[in-house]
């Protein structure tokens, strides 16, 4: 009962804080919205990389693909996409509230469904590889997508594609984006929390521990691997759709497929918090985002050095992450009992 009550208090506090944040800190709405996006990044990467043991370096592909799918669907409702992109940024759709939110909802749904289909199609090939081969293969997909979209005239090529203009004020748009990312991050957390408590969680953990033995036990490993990647793609696609609406312009190099920034951040945040745990990615994303914002503000020019140092310290000296360290330090907080047994007249931890 106490554990349930504490969990309810924790979740309630997070919900209240999340809803109040844009009104208590109106000058930092964008930064806090990006925090929720970072939490979503870390949670979705950890499904495959932490819980299942398949370290992907290309999850950013679904983020960018969702962005482009949403943009094309939104624009196609009102005009021909090829004619629109032929203007090379010289044209933008100006919509009223009804048309904007209707097209955004359709684009959001299309981005989620489209990315799930891509995850299933690509996953059937990629999951034939394991270990570093899988990691390098997924990185290749992300890098190839950048080049493909840079030369695809239908979506504007390297020039990009302008998103429909939000009909309200910029502050109002920031609040809409915040609500979108907050709701999406909460939905992602609740989804993975539920999945990890089911047979799905046991199956992907078995794949991580020993895939050959998991297959010998009758677990359909390919099915679970595809489901895991599809769940990640589902939420990443919607995150990309919201990000495209926020930036107002979608181009492949820096916005849709930022492999060396968002693509790496996903991995670092999970490792920092403790991969393979429920709360590790959340804690890692929060700590990482705060450090990133501070260094970008006060150490401009040295921010990459600071983040690089953080990665080195994490990988070399702190491999278990924050959650792993806390569990080792205070196991009783997690219901882990440590018994002591006498050894040669002394007592040491069992």
Question: Strands, helices and their partners?
Answer:
Layout lengths: L1 H23 L4 H21 L10 H17 L4 H6 L10 H30 L5 H19 L10 E2 L7 H27 L2 H11 L1 H6 L4 H27 L1 E2 L1 H5 L2 H15 L6 H19 L4 H15 L3 H9 L10 E4 L2 E4 L1
Would you write up a description of this structure?
The chain has about 350 residues and is mostly helical. The protein has a domain of about 230 residues. The chain is about 70% helix and about 5% strand. The protein is built from 15 helices and four strands. Strands 1-2 form a two-stranded antiparallel ribbon. The chain has a two-stranded antiparallel ribbon with strand order 3-4. Helix 2 packs antiparallel against helix 10, helix 7 runs antiparallel to helix 10 and helix 13 runs antiparallel to helix 14. The protein is globular, with a radius of gyration of 22 Å. The protein starts with a helix and ends with a strand. The C terminus is likely disordered.
Structure described in brief:
This protein is mainly alpha-helical and 350 residues long.
| Element pattern in H and E | HHHHHHEHHHHEHHHHHEE
Ends: how far apart?
Answer: 29 Å
Radius of gyration: 22 Å
Main sheet makeup? 2 strands, antiparallel
Give me the side-by-side strand order of the main sheet.
Answer: 1-2
What is the number of strand segments? 4
On the 0 to 100 scale, the average pLDDT is 89
Strand content: under 5%
Q: Helix segment count?
A: 15
> How much helix, percentage-wise, in residues?
over 70%
Low-confidence parts, pLDDT < 50 over ≥5 residues?
346-350
Based on Cα principal axes, name the global outline: globular
